[in-house]
Structure of CAP-Gly domain-containing protein:
Amino acid sequence: MATGDDMVEFTIKSNIVPSEAIRRFKRSAQIGEVKNQLELITGAQSQSMKIHVHDERGTKLFDLDDDSRTLGSYNVQSKMILQIEETNLKRAHMFDDTGDVPKYELTAEEYESRKNTARQFMVDHKIGKYNPAAQEERERKEKEKEEHEQQAASKINVNDRCEVAVTSQPTKRGTVMFKGEVHFKPGVWIGVRYDEPLGKNNGSAEGKKYFECPDKYGVFVRPSSVTVGEFPELDLEEL
């Protein structure tokens, strides 16, 4: 395991994204490897990236300009600033609109055979989906969430009057028209016909009909958003 003396901490800035980050790197890491890691943080391409080292006051000291050298071979110290310059800004943004751009994709085997890739960095450091413990925790929470939805659905029946409460939206009243699985998302869903045209569809989703209602009166929500009970239609005077 690396000790404190083996690591150096930098503030990372770039000319692509406005946010800053603080990261630690091994002194034994080659500059080429550091660039690959900085791709994940800044979005700058390693091939067109320059790394300028500044002191804490922002005064430029030197560049990390030799990909074959190690980070420790430069006079780097913790708290310094790495100012990342993407020298090809046109390239950095050229894929913002990819509608007409032919796409080249590596096969899984080709990508895995490459060294110093973002994937390899994530595997080595157990980041994101490559962290078994974090993945298990996510799966456990998803399972608990779905069990909660199934339990809520067991208390809901077609033709029940209901109120629907979705985050950041006003509560709406309607009638349960559908309960079950749908083709567009996993899990159990509730189809509701609102009393007013405050919905999103006519009981259809992506061309498939699940229940009948006028256009803009239908909606699909998770069971946890639905409360059944004696909810009569509201008169206009009550709204």
Notes: The chain has two domains: 4-128, 161-238. Residues 161-238 form a domain with the SH3 type barrels. fold (CATH 2.30.30.190). The chain has a mean pLDDT of 85.
